[in-house]
Write a structure and sequence with these properties.
The structure holds 2 protein chains of 2 kinds. By secondary structure, chain A is an alpha+beta fold. Helix content of chain A is 41%, strand content 29%. Chain A has 4 domains: 103 residues, no CATH class; 111 residues, Double Stranded RNA Binding Domain, CATH 3.30.160.110; 137 residues, no CATH class; 128 residues. Chain B contains 15 helices and no strands. Chain B folds into 3 domains: 48 residues; 184 residues, no CATH class; 143 residues. The chains are: A alpha+beta, B mainly alpha. Chains A and B meet through helix 2, helix 6, strand 8, strand 11 and strand 24 of A and helix 5, helix 13 and helix 14 of B. Protoporphyrin IX containing FE (HEM) sits at the interface of chains A and B.
């Protein structure tokens, strides 16, 4: 008691090392880490990782974006705190193994012959009985017990003590090895994972020897500080899109909101790319024929496909995706505007486009930039046949592009190359949407007898030609007018002007524009009547202009027009009614194409993989050993009091797994041993 | 008696001697089956799949030897499936000559037209068999509770028979579906573990089989109703998915799923999910029992439910089984990912949630083994585990995006 403080101090000093190890290897720490890791992992799945930073700012606002970014929540699994947690898990598990292994190995080897009578009697599975000493010898009992327990695969050992003799049968010590394998397995997996993680990259970034590139550059313009030499990173996983016929000796590594260029010690050329499709149009398989160019070795060809990568010099080359590699497109601009017409030639302009490139078109309404984003050689959609059975129809090639006006606003279009059958008629379809989360709204352009759009555009041209509209209006009024009104030129003038104005409104905004006009100018109670009258006038005007088109085609319209031409009129008018909302002042027609595929490759190097797999094997074997091999021990103690007539037999057992099954076994053993040993 | 020979009644027979003629016949039948399947379908398989075929045969022999009722189950399932195939084959050929093939032909054979086949329409086409399974599981759930509260042993036996029948029909449904998928198109055919609809059937079957094993092992039917509740819930989902979303349609596989890995990864996973689900339901039974013992020790619940230490034991065994298989499944998944996506671990949401589930149960096992926790807290934890597991199984597909894009809702 002289100096408790000092004493304590001494103790702490003595045990400091142990206390620290104790803490690291403690179960509480281990379980806490397991739980915290699980929770941390949740964050990374709920918050989409590694998105462009802009989309985060939009989602969370600048303040929280800053907070989340600082906490590393956009890339949780390589955040420092996450790695530290993993490090602690490895450390804790290692310490745990380090401390437990010697104890367990010792326990495995021990038989525990020295167990005391009292402790045996107090075991959960314990019983005792007596055997007549006159009829049995101790050796005979031991012999039989050994034989009996031995046949169940127990290792048996016995030892004579002063007053008693103890026999121990044990089995399943390997259960302990299971513990070691499991936990060593975890450590090994983590080490392998660490090798394949991007820690070295992170360190280089900290040291400033590497800088993530954020600009949109072509690979050869990327400065050296954002490039990694072959072998400079132990492990990586990058991707590249290779158009057919092109070669690359680098891949891009996505890092947060930027990228790095990882150079390869060889070059990969894409010779040919193939996609096969199911009847439903879904891709069935895709594969790439590659040629590997290696200065140090011979070039060779290889084919890869999904689930069948090529492993070369420790690099694995995977078929990841596919896309368009810059298909060449032949296009026609078919304007919805009327330039001063030279003669009556149809207005159109041929241009060439290429997927993932853009092209600017000049129009009287300003310049439009066409950004071609995709070309599809076919489009298969499910529908039902006449027996309402499901079938698939191919709608043929299509292009997807964005048209950006001078203010920077873009709409997305999908245009089909061939006419598509809908309700018995064929149309050229063009889908338009203002943003990607909308559905396309379609413009349906009906086809003429030659399966072209010529008639539609002819019709459109006439409607948009002010001079011809006026001429038509006058003629219409003149022919429809009653004889007595013939002289009223003022009224004729008025009707003709109204007709021209209605056509003008229709051109601009379809029926909606006319409706708005009525609502703005006509008193409410008269609106319906006026609307009916307007529709009649408009209909007549459009019909007459359509007849002009037919006449110009050389048809004899006096005999009346065919049902088909009639339907065409209706379809054409409803298409034109929607043109005001179509967005571009022209229709872009795909006339021909040369397809060029691109293959999305992923190239990875993961030298830690085999270490991880080794760890997995240890883990799996260990887990099964731990669960399904129970450590079992039975004690048979033979006691003979000095001069006693009987041997006292104590039979006890314990296990560390499966108490329930063990209990059954214990009872069987106890019963049979009792019968066997007291038998004669 | 000679010195080192035990009297007969105390001699343990080696396990080989325990095998009956039936065991051997079963093994031979299995071998014949594998060889037959090999001859018939080898052209569809790669070398790994051939390996998997024979390893599956061997494991089924092992399973049948270790768990005797499985032998009969297997033989009935095989027989019914073969019957279905033998009805399908000539009927499909007849229809093909009229120009009707694929899914359409299957529909004709199972719908209300004159050309439909009675057995296919009402019994053993994959859809009918699955419906039978569903109905039987629902009925078994109710019957188990009748047994529990009505103290009716007969009801108990009926319930057990229903579960066995449900498992049989479920397995027949899957086997026939496998065959049907090849009828839809030879390039469409694939093992029926590729989408949510199919794995839900698998989940119900596996959970029920694990339960049936414990039912005999622990000689009590009192857990049946509880376990069947979760199975019924999954069947409810399955039916909704079928009728509301038309999910039972056989669809071709996306390229990433065309791999032999799927054949082992998915079933291993579902042993895990099934076992975890079972453990959680036992956890609920445990909590109810404990509460009953506290509130009303003489009451029906307290007397009818199994002893708490039995429940505790089943709970542990089930979680251990689940953990072991989940470990295998996750490792297999990683190996598959390495081959298909170019990295064995990409922190994809599905992968990450598998890890979360795994860490959760690792923590559970540590608590039990190193801290000696038992009873109510562990039961609660097992119940919470069900939510974690369900999220990994379903929630990820519903709410999160990632590479595991099969079976979106
Ligand atoms: C991811 C990390 C870990 C995993 C997956 C893991 C897994 C396991 C498993 C499955 C068991 C078997 C439980 C049973 O027998 O039913 C176990 C037991 C055990 N673990 Fe861990 N473990 C991990 C980390 C640790 C750590 C860090 C420690 C040290 C504090 C530890 C100490 C133990 C001990 C002492 C046992 C009991 C062995 C016995 O008594 O049989 N484990 N572990």
């Amino acid at each position: 008691m002289s100096s408790p403080k000092n004493n304590l101090h001494e103790q702490v000093k003595l045990h400091r090392k142990n206390v620290f190890l104790e803490f690291l290897g403690s179960m509480n720490l281990a379980i806490s880490i397991l739980v915290v890791l699980a929770i941390a992992s949740v964050i990374g799945t709920v918050l989409q990782q590694n998105q462009p930073y802009n989309s985060y700012i939009i989602k969370f606002g600048p303040f929280w974006h800053e907070v989340y970014q600082t906490l590393g929540l956009y890339d949780v699994y390589s955040a420092v705190w996450f790695l530290v947690l993993l490090g602690f898990l490895v450390l804790s598990t290692s310490v745990c193994v380090y401390r437990n292994t010697p104890v367990m190995l010792r326990e495995m080897r021990q038989f525990r012959l020295r167990a005391k009578q009292k402790s045996l009697l107090s075991m959960k599975h314990s019983s005792h009985w007596q055997v007549d000493a006159a009829k049995n010898t101790k050796e005979y009992i031991l012999q039989k017990a050994k034989l009996y327990l031995g046949q169940f695969g127990f290792q048996v050992k016995d030892e004579a003590f002063e007053k008693h003799h103890t026999l121990v049968a044990r089995k399943g010590g390997i259960n302990r090895v299971g513990y070691i394998l499991t936990h060593v397995g975890i450590v090994v997996i983590c080490i392998g994972g660490l090798i394949d993680g991007n820690l070295s990259l992170k360190v280089k970034e900290w040291l400033g020897t590497i800088k993530v590139e954020q600009r949109d550059l072509t690979a050869k313009d990327v400065p050296a500080i954002s490039r990694l030499k072959p072998g400079e990173s132990v492990s990586f996983r990058g991707s590249i899109t290779l158009p057919e016929g092109s070669t690359s000796n680098f891949v891009f590594l996505n890092v947060r909101d930027g990228y790095l260029v990882q150079e390869l010690p060889f070059a990969v050329e894409l010779k040919n790319f193939r996609v096969e499709h199911y009847e439903s149009g879904q891709p069935k398989s895709f594969e790439s024929d590659l040629i590997i160019h290696d200065k140090e070795r011979k070039n060779f060809a290889a084919t890869i496909s999904v689930n069948h990568p090529l492993i070369y010099r420790g690099y694995a080359i995977y078929q990841a995706s596919f896309g368009d590699g810059g298909s060449e497109l032949d296009l026609q601009i078919r304007p919805f505007f009327v330039k001063p017409l030279k003669g009556n030639k149809a207005q159109q302009l041929a241009i060439k486009g290429e997927v993932s490139k853009s092209k600017t078109v000049k129009t009287p309404q300003g310049n439009y930039t066409l950004e071609f984003s995709d070309f599809k050689k076919f489009n298969i959609f499910p529908n039902t046949d006449k027996d309402s059975r499901k079938q698939f129809t191919n709608y043929g090639p299509s292009i997807i592009f964005k048209a950006r006006d001078e203010s920077g606003q873009a709409r997305e279009y999908v245009n089909y190359m061939s006419p598509i059958k809908l309700e018995g008629r064929y149309f050229f379809l063009s889908g338009m949407r203002e943003s990607v989360d909308q559905d396309y709204k379609y413009l349906h352009i009906p086809i003429d007898a030659n399966a072209t759009m010529e008639r539609f555009f002819k019709f459109h041209e006439i409607i948009n030609d002010d001079a011809r509209v006026l001429q038509m209006a006058r003629a219409t009024v003149a022919s429809n007018i009653k004889a007595e009104d013939k002289t009223n030129t003022k009224m004729q003038q008025q009707v003709a002007t109204a007709m021209v104005r209605l056509v003008g409104l229709f051109r601009k905004g379809g029926y909606v524009a006319i409706d708005k006009d009525i609502q703005a100018k006509v008193p409410k109670e008269k609106q319906l009547t006026v609307a009916r009258a307007y529709m009649g006038v408009l209909q007549t005007a459009l019909e007459n202009m359509y007849l002009l088109v037919l006449r110009e085609e050389g048809l004899d319209v006096i005999k009346g027009i065919s049902k088909r031409d009639g339907t065409f009129f209706e379809d054409a008018v409803s298409a034109m009614a929607g043109l005001g909302y179509y967005g571009t002042p022209f229709y872009l027609q795909l006339t021909d194409f040369t397809q060029r595929d691109a293959s999305g490759l992923q190239i990875a190097r993961a030298p830690g993989k085999n270490i991880v797999y080794l760890g997995c094997v240890l883990l799996i074997i260990g887990v099964f050993m731990m669960f399904y091999i129970a450590q079992q021990r039975f004690w048979l103690m033979i006691v003979r009091e000095d001069g006693g007539e009987n041997f006292d037999i104590i039979f006890a057992g314990n296990t560390n797994r499966n108490e329930f099954g063990f209990n059954k076994r214990y009872r069987l053993f106890a019963e049979q041993l009792k019968a066997l040993l007291t038998d004669k | 008696m000679s010195e080192n020979i035990l009297p007969q009644q105390f001699q343990q027979q080696s396990w080989v001697k325990h095998l009956t003629i039936f065991d051997w016949l079963y093994a031979v039948a299995m071998l014949v089956g594998c060889v037959y399947a090999y001859n018939e379908y080898a052209s569809y398989m790669d070398e790994y799949e051939i390996g998997i075929l024979f390893l599956t045969g061997a494991s089924l022999v092992g399973l049948g030897w270790a768990w005797k009722p499985f032998r009969l189950l297997f033989i009935i399932v095989a027989a019914l499936s073969l019957i279905a195939i033998n009805i399908y084959n000539p009927a499909m050929q007849a229809l093909a000559s009229e120009g009707i093939t694929g899914q359409t032909a299957i529909d004709v054979l199972t719908d209300d037209s004159e050309k439909s086949k009675f057995f296919l329409k009402f019994l053993i086409s994959s859809t009918s068999a699955t419906m039978w399974m569903s109905a039987l599981f629902f009925m078994a759930t109710i019957t188990y509770f009748i047994e529990l509260f009505g103290r009716s042993e007969f009801a108990g036996k009926v319930a057990t028979a229903m579960v066995w029948s449900a498992v049989t029909m479920g397995l027949v449904g899957l086997m026939v579906r496998w065959f049907e998928s090849y009828l839809v198109g030879s390039d469409v055919g694939h093992i029926p573990v590729s989408n949510l609809y199919e794995v839900f059937i698998l989940f119900a079957i596996i959970t029920a089989m694990i339960y049936l094993y414990y039912e005999v092992r622990y000689e009590t039917r009192a857990m049946g109703g509880f376990v069947l509740l979760i199975i019924s819930a999954s069947i409810g989902f399955l039916l909704w998915y079928h009728f509301d979303k038309g999910a039972s349609e056989i669809k071709p596989l996306v390229p990433a799923l065309q791999s032999y890995w799927m054949k082992i990864h998915v079933p291993a996973n579902f042993v895990g999910y099934g076992a975890f689900a079972l453990a959680s339901m036992i956890g609920i039974a445990f909590l109810i029992k404990e509460r009953a013992l506290r509130k009303n020790p003489a009451g029906l619940l307290a007397s009818r439910l199994p002893a708490t230490d039995i429940l505790d034991d089943v709970m542990y065994k089930s979680i251990a089984l689940g953990f072991a298989f989940f470990t295998i499944a996750t490792v297999l998944g990683a190996m598959w990912a390495a081959e298909a996506w170019g990295g064995y671990w990409s922190w994809d949401p599905k992968e990450t949630w598998a890890l979360i589930v795994w860490l959760n149960y690792a923590a559970w096992l540590h608590m039990r083994f190193t801290k000696g926790w038992r009873g109510a807290p562990m039961a609660w934890w097992a119940v919470i585990g069900l939510f974690v597991t369900t999220f990994a199984f379903l929630g990820v597909n519903m709410f999160l995006s990632g590479l595991h894009s099969y079976g979106e809702l």
